[in-house]
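User: Assemble these into one structure.

Assistant: Restating your components, then the assembled model:
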Amino acid sequence: MIRLIPRAQPSKAMIFLSPLLALTLTAVTAFFIFAFILTDIKVSSVFYTLFVEPLIDTYYISELLVKAAPLIMIALGLSIGFRAGVWNIGAEGQYVIGGITGGAVGLYFYNVEGFWLIPLMSVAAILGGMFYAGIAAFLKTKYQVNEILVTLMLTYVAVLFLSAMLQGPMRNPSGFNFPESRPFHDSALLPIIWQGTRLNVGLIIAVILSFVTWLGIKKHLSGLQIKITGSAPRAAKFAGFDDKKTIWFALLISGGVAGLAGLFEVIGPAGQITPGLPQFYGFTAIIVAFMSRLHPIAIIFSALLIALTYLGGENVQIYFNLPSSITNIFQGMLLFYFLACDVLIQYKIVFFKTIRQKL
Amino acid sequence: MNGAELRVESVSWSPARHAEPILHPTSFSLAAGRVLGVVGPNGAGKSTLVKVIYGSLQPDSGQMQWCGEGYSPKSPFDAREEGIAMVFQHFSLFDSLTVAENIILGLDDIGLDTDFTEQITKYSKQYGLDINPQQVVGDLSVGARQRVEIIRCLMQNPKLLIMDEPTSVLTPQEVTDLFITLRKLAEDGCAILYISHKLEEVRQICTQATILRGGKLVQNCNPQDHNKQELAEMMIGKKLIQLARSNITTGQDIFSINNLSRKSEDIFGVDLHDISLTIKKGSIVGIAGVAGNGQDELMELLIGEVEAPADSLVFKDEDIGRLNSHQRRQLSMFFIPEERLGHGAVPDMGLHENMLLSRPQQSEMTNYGVINWQNVEKLTQQVIDDFKVQTQSSKMLAKSLSGGNLQKFMVGRELIQNPELLIVSQPTWGVDAGSENNIHQSLIALADQGSAILIISQDLDEILTLCEQIHVLSEGSLSAAVDMKDNGLEKISHLMLGSEKQ
């Protein structure tokens, strides 16, 4: 008989081995899936295009980092909420709203130069995201409305609001009636940190935020408060932590960061506000957060991994005509195996002796 | 029923092939008509031993004989076939069914249409098990539910009855009634295996005792040959310290509850009615009562997890009803809740992190919210050393500690803050005699220093040992302080039963 027995202490080795094991299992499973569905293409060349090519070409590497930045930021915010048991599923909506409010400030000061412009837009984007997530916090603390539903549904509202804005007040006056904003002027665009690519300071800010979050969780009571509220709500009350404050805190932080990520997309790779702003980053970041076990530093790595599946997925789509849902399959498998393997941190597999028939 | 004898020879059990055995080879024998007490602190292997006898676990080594023949049950069904029945500590009864229906459901192979009323009445008369077969179980007291469980076992004509911690939830009067029943059963030739850590009861009811400690058999003896202290020392393996207050000097009032009433938000909760109580500095006040009579609800209000009405809770002349627990700690009120895992401590966090649950605003541990982990470690280690918490390190997860050790840690965590008022619920629930002794000593030491303590406990012995002022909580109402001078125990017993028996 095989059984899972709880370990007395979490296994240190497994904390590191489990992601590797998960990756291996994902690769093996993927291999079999491809071997099963591909008839005239070599599985090895698909793997190469999926996972190796994006890592040896400078263009791809820069694009990988461009995609990872918003994922890192959004996942950081979400991870704080998830630790507290506050399930913000609608980071996508907060991201869009942040892009709109921050972008609006940039458009208002169109062609105005100034180093203060990006910080001002950032504040607007953070406030926008906070406001949007705050709706869920208000409804939850005041009327016990489930935040999962509120945040998720508000995402659809946000996307429609975006299209209303782009067809109305934000439309580029000289843009041939396309539902797009004006391209931002230089002062409103994020500085590029790798010349010749689209990589901007957003990545640096995302990494800095990771470390700040890590320090906060480790060193500040609020980190502990969030953890306790999530894992043992009664103990949190015993400690005198206010659960309503924790809900507000978690939602405002995750909303604010998602909003900022939205703005960075608008004034980074996109350069203008377009209907293509929502790119599922808000949802994918949920996978990123869980794959990293909600650890702020690990989020950087899982964001890179997920970004790789995006790029690789696009690649095989182009070269082999495979469907884009390959990306989703990989993201799903990664999350599944990561969560499954993490069981081994708290539990060990024991080959139980069989029950004896006779004494 | 003559000749029924259980012999257990060198039976041992371990959870996995190479794991440390939870039960080392243990032997004893129990003859018909005798009552054997299996005694030992928590984790001693009592329940493992019983599970082996009842067929839930298969032993690694050793053998058992029952009625002169080899006995190796593979499941509780086998055990019941052989005439061995068990009353568990936690009852398995359906609240919405009647007594008779519950009894029928518990029998292995009998149709539902059989009428057992007569048989139930017969047993209930024969063994003094006062019960009405048509009553719905949900309306019964804990003691009555236990009687239902016992009758259910008796229906199978057992030759051996196993009782697991049967008195942990009973009032003193109910305990006396239970003992009458058990003695009658023994007289009729039933063997009884009585598991308990309450030594006084074992001395009263058992004719022989098997003492376990750390999974090993310490001694088979006759409990009547030893006094409670000797038994306790055998059980924990070291000398107990006599408890006595060296200095009872009570000062001014420090804390009062004034006409506190509150409707419970939970439909299964208990409403509190007009509770009043005053505590003086340096005194230990006890609230006795059977669980489920409003203790949890009262504790929530006292800790500050639920807001109390204005002026109903006054500490050092300040209305604290609307303060949360953290703000109350600021005024030097500290708390130890009954539930250890998930309430007083976070199971999945280390002891050092749990240390931060209870602390005043400014302490060595935190400064404007920034945690000084070095100092946290230092204090955690101090608690571990001072209160003899057995743990490998200060970083062990709370859930990995035994109940007694975690309780010692929680008591230590609060005492290290030198509270002026300590409110503690069930300070020694599920704790072995050695740890109990330690905890009681530290509470007494705190009160001797001039602090006030409020103890809410179901364990009447504990309250009688520690408290100078005793109240009884019954159905959400608190009695006035009981005058212990004449027949105090009887009065308490009466109050504990409340209106139920009137």
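The interface with chain A takes residues 15-17, 58-59, 63, 70, 72, 74, 303-305, 324-329, 335, 337, 339, 342-349, 353, 356-358, 366, 369-371, 373, 396-397, 400 of chain B (CB under 8 Å).
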